[in-house]
Each structure stands twice: as structure tokens, then as C-alpha cells.
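User: For a reading group we're discussing how well predicted structures match intuition. Take MotA/TolQ/ExbB proton channel family protein. Before you show the prediction, I'll give you the sequence so everyone sees exactly what went in.
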Amino acid sequence: ASIGPAMAVALLTTLYGAVIANAFATPMSEKLARASSMEKTNKSLIIETISGIQEGMNPRVLEQLLSTYLPTGKRPVQEG
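Assistant: Thanks. Here is the predicted 3D structure of MotA/TolQ/ExbB proton channel family protein, as C-alpha cells, for the group to look at:
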């Protein structure tokens, strides 16, 4: 007779856990993954820029190298 209430509590907590995971935890982890990816890209961009400047790279070459980090529609138009 005491198994019934205990089983109800166990199932209810399992349901709550599933709801919380799908409603909050999964979207939060996806948002954090996107933010982490953007941060990694930004740090890579900074490292490329600083190392190019330190190596005395031609500014036009450095500009072309760094434009690969921009989305295709926002890249500078190539002349010539």
C-alpha cells in the first residue's frame, strides 16, 4: 500500500525533469554553444590580425585574409 504514493512521486519528478530539460536546459545549452562558437571565431580573428601586423604583412593581403571571416554578402567587392 505504501508503494503507490512513492511511485506517484517518482513519476511526477521524472515528468518535471523532462519538462525542465526540454523547456529550459536544451535551449540554454544551444544558446551557449552559439555564443561559444562566436567567441572562438572572434578570438581567432584577433589572433590572425595581430600576428599579421607583427609579421609586417601587406595591408591588402591582411584585408583579404580577414575578409574570410565576414559573411559572403558583407565582404568587400574585389576591384579589377
